Structures are given as structure tokens and as C-alpha cells.
Recover the amino acids of this structure.
């Protein structure tokens, strides 16, 4: 039997082949970001990216690093077809990496007479969830660290699949609002949920590269003879373990320049007891809600909420990890144009609340967590491409698993960051 | 001539010039073309309405010289500029992209379906409009962009000025169908119609029955320039 993943790759190569024949008429585009960062963190010895228990992308102390160098390369045709490759690199003292984060082909039709537009996407891409990471190469637009909700999306949620999206344009129907609905069928996201269980919610601008393996903190259940001894020492979120197809559904209602409301549901349909090379299937399901509200000309409120569960078993019916989790944030971005007389300054304040509830009895694997986070960012647009930002991050969390490495359950972490970001 | 008299002279000259400008627009001035026709458009509350299209279609078989002026529809500031354009059938229509990004202009209507991508700095003159039509245009990359082109079968077309007036220098008097149109006018086919005999110094006025619907704001939801949505 041919594996599903192989079939998907073949289907995408076939599409790519068709596009190559059209290459003469293509318009090529290069967009991206370079984010040079200096940060000072009051956290644990190792941040989560280095496999530690710290909740920031960088470990305790000072660091000068390339937080992101990413590029979105695309070829676009007049008929609505486009091919995209998104390359990202993260060069720091934690776990530097260079690779692909997204690669997909897209077809966007013109709206028909009734105002309906169809968009089809195939390949490796992010399901449409984050309301923060909408700059090129999935960079966060208003803050340096993404919220913990979207940092998790960037770390463990990515799919190889096909997304079908239909949009009803209000303009053509004499309605003030637009509507859209999308459905995605996907593979290669079976282990998602493992890193959330083992390091909890975290916050950074890091994204997991396609195929990348990520470290997580040690816990007693991983020891020889214990429940999790078959687990590999790093987790690879983007694998297909059981050849079952997962899905993501999303709907959005928006009033232009006023408000956009969205809701979605993700289910990777992983078989929770399948394991291949130390990587388990984690049946991860969650719903998500989003709101972007133009409170006034200069004030924007963005809020997201996500809640779901994940399940991993040693054999059918025997739970090893059975977690519920939820996360919500509210952020306010204020543009200073009426006060300073130019459009160069903006400030963002963000409040987050997150939790993980461990429902299983596995010894040496307590995944419980509860925490709040606060972010304050000020960004100055120095020139049309350069953005200078200062950001303060504060996380207060309770996580009993920290005691496995002799750290305390209750922890307050703080970080100050300065960055120069170049967008192109 | 001393300084004072030069100033006075200049002022007088300016006054004369401005009177001339005024008289060219106004039909009730003795020096104006006697066939000039004035049309006023007001809202349901009596406010002057600007940028509504007014056109006069001959009903007595008057033979009129076509007005085939080149029309330019700009894409500027990620918006159609102007929002509303009007031209006679078979006129050249040039789309000019003054932005530093590519647009994907389209019309979805069944009678005037067209689409093209237009890169920064390019001009596109590929679309021919040889039938009267109400063309609603959009950009498939930037959904907030919205523009209209009204194609009419008469050389007598104009948009009302800020005082709500449109003026026509009518060469062939007689019976005309006078039409006022705006995509946000809440009435049948977005227009009001009067049939009337056009005489020298004719003045017509239109008062809308309903309040106009809001003109869509041609602005992005987000003014950040580096959003991946647009690619």
C-alpha cells in the first residue's frame, strides 16, 4: 500500500510540474523579514527551545541573535495560480536551524457574478488560526514574542494537506459583511500535543521547521521501564503515524474596518496508541475563536481563545497522557498618529491566560499547568522597511513538573527585548 | 504706477478672471452659452450631493458629436481613483497602477466580465466598453478596493460638483432623458430619471427619495505593509 504522505507529495509534485510549464508568464516575488534581537531574560537555565523548562525562546541571561530570517518566495500567474516556498532560519545560542516552514500551491478564482470566490491550497502550510502572525514568513506583526497560543501553533500545528475555501463578498451582494468558510483535509500532524504536554505553554518568535525534531524537558516517566520509555528523546510534530486523515474547519464573518469574528475546529484524528520510531500519535482536537475589532480609528483589539484535548496511549484504552488545555489572550494595539502627528509609533499590550489539565494517572508525568502572561511592546517605524521595537514580557506560572529538575512549581519569568526588524 | 495701483490692477484682473470662470460654469449669466443646461442633485434632506453621475440621452433623434475623451482610472493608495468614472461607449479606458504593488483588477458582472493583473507603474488599455453598462470593479488581491465605471450612450455626461451641480453645453436642443446615477443610490437601478424638453437656460433639479447608502471605505483593514495575505 502506498503511504498517504507519499500520495500527497506526488499530487503536489504533479501540480508543480504543471506550473513549471507556465513559468514564462510568471511574476516572481521575494518577501520576508530579518529580525535582529538583543534580549535579557530572567528565566531558567534552559529555555524551551533548548529543551529546558524556561518559557521563553531563549535561556536565562543576555543574548544577541537572529530571532528570524525568513523569506517567502513565490511565482504568481495571471490566472490566479501561485506557488509559494517559505524559508525560515533562527540563529541563536539555543538551537539554530535553517529550513522550510511552508511550501504550497494556491489557486484563487475570481469572484463569480454572485460574489463567491473559491481558493484551493495544497502542500505544507499553517491552518488559518493565528490572528497575530500575518506578516511575511509568519512573523508576528505587532509584538516580538507571539502569544503563547500562537507560539504553540507555530511549534506543533502544521499540515500537509489541501484547503478549500469559499468566500462570499458582501460588495457584490450589497451586504456590508463578508463571509468565508474553509475546510482542510490533512496528514502529517499526528504527534502534535506532545510538546505542549511536556513543556507547557511558551512564548517566542520561533517556528518549527518542516521535519525538525524538538527537544523537551526530562521527566521521570521517560526512564527505562517506565510508561514513556519508548518515546524518542525529541519530538517530531510533523509526522504521519497512522495514515488517517485529519481535518480543520473554519468560518469567518467580517464587517470591513469594523470587526471580524472567526471560529474553527481542528482534529488530527491520530490513533493515540500508534508509535513509529519513538514518535506516538497524539489525538489532538481543539476549537478556536478569534476576534479583531477596530475599537476606534487608532485602537485595535485582537483576541483569541483555544480549548481542546490531547490523548496518547500505550495500548488501546490505556491512557498515558490525557490532557485538556485552554488558552486565551486579549491584545490592544494603539497607533499614536493623532498624538505625535505621524504614523510611525504603535504600542501593544497583551494579556494571556493559559492552562493544561492532566487527566491521567501516569507516574512521573505531571502535565498540569496554570499561568498568566503580560506583554508590552512599543514599535517605531524608522523607515519604510525598518521597525525598531522594545518589548517587555512577564509570565507567572505554576507547573509541578518543574520539580523533576529541581526547579520550583511557582515561577515568574521576565524578559526585555530590543529588536531591529527589516521587512521586505 | 506705484505699488498700490499695481496691486489694485492685479486684484481687478483676478476678479475679472474669476468672474469669467464663474460665468463659464453658470448658465444664468448673460455671457454664457445660451444652451447651457444646469442640473442640481440634492439628498432627501436637501443637501448638495457631489460625484453623482448625470447624463442626458437624446429622445428626438438629435445627432450628437461623440465625446471620446480618454478616460483614466487610477489604482492609487490601494484604491480606485476616482471611485466613480463615466465615459461614452467606445472611449479608450486606461487603467494606471500608481501603487508600488501589483493589482488584480476584475469585473464580475455577466455583461462586462474582465480581469487582468497590473504591475506597479503599468497602464492597461485592454478592455473595450462598446455597450452601455454599469461596471462594478474590484481587486482580487485587495478586497476592500471598489470602483465603478458607468458607460453611457451619449456625449452629455458629467459628475456633480461639490455644490451638487452638473452643467451641459447642449448643442442640439429638444427632448432628453435626464438620468442621475450612483451605485449607492437607493432606488430602482440606482438611478432617477426625468424626461424633459431642454430649452436655453433650462434648469433641472433632482431630490433623492431616500438617504444614500454608505460609500465603501477603500482602505485596508490593516495598514501594515508586509502582510502575507496579499501574496
Amino acid at each position: 500500500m502506498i503511504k498517504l504522505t507519499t500520495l500527497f507529495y506526488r499530487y503536489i509534485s504533479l501540480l508543480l510540474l504543471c506550473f513549471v510549464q507556465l513559468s514564462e508568464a510568471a511574476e516572481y516575488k521575494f518577501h520576508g523579514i530579518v529580525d535582529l534581537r538583543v534580549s535579557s531574560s530572567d528565566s531558567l537555565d534552559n529555555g524551551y527551545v533548548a529543551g529546558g523548562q524556561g518559557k521563553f525562546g531563549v535561556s536565562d541571561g543576555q543574548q544577541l541573535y537572529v530571532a528570524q530570517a525568513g523569506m517567502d518566495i513565490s511565482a504568481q500567474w495571471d490566472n490566479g495560480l501561485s506557488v509559494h516556498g517559505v524559508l525560515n532560519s533562527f540563529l541563536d545560542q539555543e538551537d539554530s536551524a535553517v529550513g522550510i516552514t511552508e511550501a504550497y500551491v494556491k489557486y484563487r478564482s475570481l469572484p463569480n457574478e454572485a460574489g463567491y470566490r473559491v481558493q484551493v491550497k495544497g502542500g505544507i502550510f499553517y491552518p488559518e488560526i493565528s490572528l497575530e502572525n500575518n506578516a511575511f514568513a509568519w512573523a508576528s506583526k505587532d509584538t516580538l514574542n507571539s502569544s503563547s497560543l500562537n507560539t504553540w501553533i507555530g511549534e506543533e500545528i502544521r499540515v500537509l494537506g489541501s484547503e478549500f475555501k469559499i468566500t462570499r463578498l458582501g460588495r457584490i451582494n450589497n451586504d456590508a459583511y463578508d463571509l468565508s468558510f474553509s475546510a482542510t483535509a490533512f496528514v502529517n500532524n499526528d504527534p502534535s500535543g506532545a510538546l505542549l504536554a511536556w513543556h507547557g505553554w511558551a512564548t517566542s518568535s520561533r517556528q518549527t521547521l518542516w521535519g525538525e525534531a524538538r527537544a523537551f524537558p526530562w521527566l521521570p516517566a521517560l526512564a527505562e521501564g517506565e510508561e514513556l520509555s519508548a518515546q524518542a528523546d525529541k519530538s517530531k510534530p510533523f509526522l504521519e503515524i497512522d495514515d488517517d486523515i485529519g481535518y480543520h474547519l473554519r468560518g469567518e464573518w467580517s464587517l470591513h474596518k469594523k470587526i471580524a469574528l472567526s471560529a474553527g475546529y481542528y482534529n488530527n484524528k491520530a490513533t493515540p496508541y500508534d508509535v513509529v520510531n519513538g514518535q506516538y500519535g497524539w489525538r489532538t482536537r481543539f476549537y478556536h475563536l478569534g476576534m479583531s475589532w477596530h475599537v476606534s480609528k487608532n485602537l485595535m483589539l485582537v483576541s483569541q481563545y483555544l480549548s481542546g484535548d490531547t490523548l496518547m496511549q500505550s495500548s488501546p484504552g490505556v491512557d498515558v497522557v490525557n490532557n485538556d488545555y485552554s488558552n486565551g489572550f486579549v491584545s490592544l494595539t494603539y497607533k499614536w498618529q493623532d498624538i505625535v502627528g505621524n504614523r510611525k509609533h504603535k504600542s501593544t499590550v497583551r494579556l494571556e491566560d493559559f492552562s493544561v489539565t492532566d487527566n491521567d494517572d501516569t507516574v512521573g508525568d505531571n502535565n498540569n499547568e496554570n499561568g498568566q502572561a503580560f506583554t508590552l511592546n512599543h514599535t517605531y517605524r524608522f523607515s519604510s522597511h525598518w521597525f525598531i521595537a522594545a518589548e517587555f514580557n512577564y509570565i507567572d506560572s505554576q507547573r509541578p513538573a518543574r520539580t523533576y529538575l529541581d526547579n520550583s512549581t511557582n515561577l515568574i519569568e521576565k524578559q526585555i527585548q530590543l529588536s531591529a526588524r527589516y521587512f521586505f | 504706477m506705484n505699488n498700490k495701483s499695481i496691486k489694485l490692477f492685479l486684484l481687478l484682473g483676478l476678479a475679472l478672471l474669476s468672474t469669467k470662470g464663474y460665468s463659464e460654469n453658470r448658465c444664468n449669466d448673460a455671457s454664457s452659452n445660451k444652451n447651457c443646461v444646469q442640473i442640481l442633485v440634492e439628498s432627501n434632506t436637501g443637501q448638495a450631493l457631489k460625484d453623482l453621475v448625470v447624463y442626458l440621452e437624446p429622445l428626438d433623434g438629435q445627432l450628437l458629436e461623440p465625446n471620446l475623451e480618454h478616460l483614466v482610472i487610477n489604482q492609487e493608495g490601494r484604491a480606485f481613483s476616482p471611485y466613480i468614472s463615466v465615459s461614452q461607449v467606445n472611449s479608450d479606458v486606461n487603467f494606471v497602477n500608481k501603487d508600488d504593488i501589483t493589482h488584480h483588477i476584475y469585473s464580475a458582472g455577466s455583461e462586462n466580465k474582465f480581469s487582468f493583473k497590473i504591475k506597479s507603474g503599468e497602464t492597461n488599455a485592454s478592455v473595450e466598453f462598446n455597450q452601455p453598462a454599469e461596471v462594478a470593479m474590484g481587486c482580487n488581491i485587495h478586497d476592500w478596493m471598489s470602483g465603478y465605471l458607468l458607460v453611457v450612450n451619449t456625449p452629455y455626461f458629467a459628475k456633480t460638483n461639490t455644490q451638487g451641480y452638473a452643467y451641459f453645453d447642449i448643442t442640439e436642443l429638444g427632448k432628453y432623458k435626464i438620468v442621475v446615477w450612483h451605485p449607492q443610490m437607493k432606488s430602482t437601478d440606482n438611478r432617477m430619471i426625468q424626461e424633459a424638453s431642454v430649452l436655453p437656460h433650462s434648469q433641472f433639479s433632482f431630490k433623492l427619495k431616500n438617504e444614500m447608502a454608505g460609500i465603501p471605505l477603500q482602505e485596508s483593514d490593516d495598514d501594515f505593509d508586509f502582510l502575507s495575505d496579499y501574496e
User: Anything to note?
Assistant: DSSP finds five helices and 20 strands in chain A.
